[in-house]
């Protein structure tokens, strides 16, 4: 496969130029910090628990596209597929802090863990800011259930951000927002399939290679190996494989109510995702699992990777309330 073409200026400036364009696209609702790759809402109310999200760029619209009403209050942005540095995170946290502490919410990757932890120490010891951390661990392909702490955060980040963002708007304490965010993460499960690779803008190189007639089940967001590589199969067969692994993991049971997300990894058509959605709904109905809401779209990408992921969030009344609050951001809005 030839390296993909991209319309860029200087490949080393893609994040800075992207954030500048992102701020313009939000028509005054966001601002970029002067010396840091971070964005913050301009309409943050005083005396609010703050939600700071973040991670590597290249997965748009996540994370910086999810800053807005009942979503993140700010985002710390790394270079493409790289964690934001501690100084960026510290600056972003100070910018969103409104006196009630800051919740860090991000995907569970080693670089992000290290840098957000360093920033948390600085903020706690030097600034006296109460900081809590919740890491999203929804990727069932990354590790077995007994090693949840080793699982990656993938598209389930969206539902975690949506619920935590709503809680941070309505709840009075950081303790309560942290509790609700942890509850959301505990009930999230995702798995993806890749048909072809994405690329790194600075080098133009592909993140992995697949034969034209192969797919990978469980591929990570940066090209990490999945659980199996196999010949391409019909949509119903692939959906059956995915759902067998998802449903058995939590496990989801008859009578459960879920939110369902089908996420485009970058270059998959809406047609393909809707065909998969059709089969998933047949499976859920057969298993006696009710779907409260469905999100089909582009939430976490890997540049032009072809493929998709499926996420299930098991709901109760509390999680449903925060999930259903109106959301407004460039990357995800729902009334």
> How helix-rich are the residues, as a percent range?
25-40%
Largest sheet: 6 strands, mixed
| Level-1 CATH class name of the largest domain | Alpha Beta
Round the mean pLDDT to the nearest integer and report it. 95
List keywords for this structure.
335 residues, alpha/beta, Rossmann fold, Hypothetical Protein Tm841, Chain: A,domain 3, 2 domains, 6-stranded mixed β-sheet, globular
What does this structure look like?
By secondary structure, the chain is an alpha/beta fold. It folds into two domains: 12-187, Dihydroxyacetone kinase, domain 1 (Rossmann fold, 3-Layer(aba) Sandwich), CATH 3.40.50; 188-318, Dihydroxyacetone kinase, domain 2 (Hypothetical Protein Tm841, Chain: A,domain 3). Helix content is 32%, strand content 23%. It is built from eight helices and twelve strands. The protein has helices at 14-25, 86-96, 110-127, 157-170, 174-186, 235-249, 270-286, 317-324, and strands at 30-32, 38-41, 50-57, 74-80, 102-107, 131-136, 188-196, 214-217, 228-231, 257-264, 290-297, 306-314. The strands form two sheets. It has a six-stranded mixed β-sheet, with helices on both faces. Strands 9-8-7-12-10-11 form a six-stranded mixed β-sheet. Helix 2 packs across helix 3 (110-127), helix 4 packs antiparallel against helix 5 (174-186) and helix 4 crosses helix 8. The longest helix is centred in the middle third of the chain and has 18 residues, at 110-127. The chain is globular, with a radius of gyration of 19 Å.
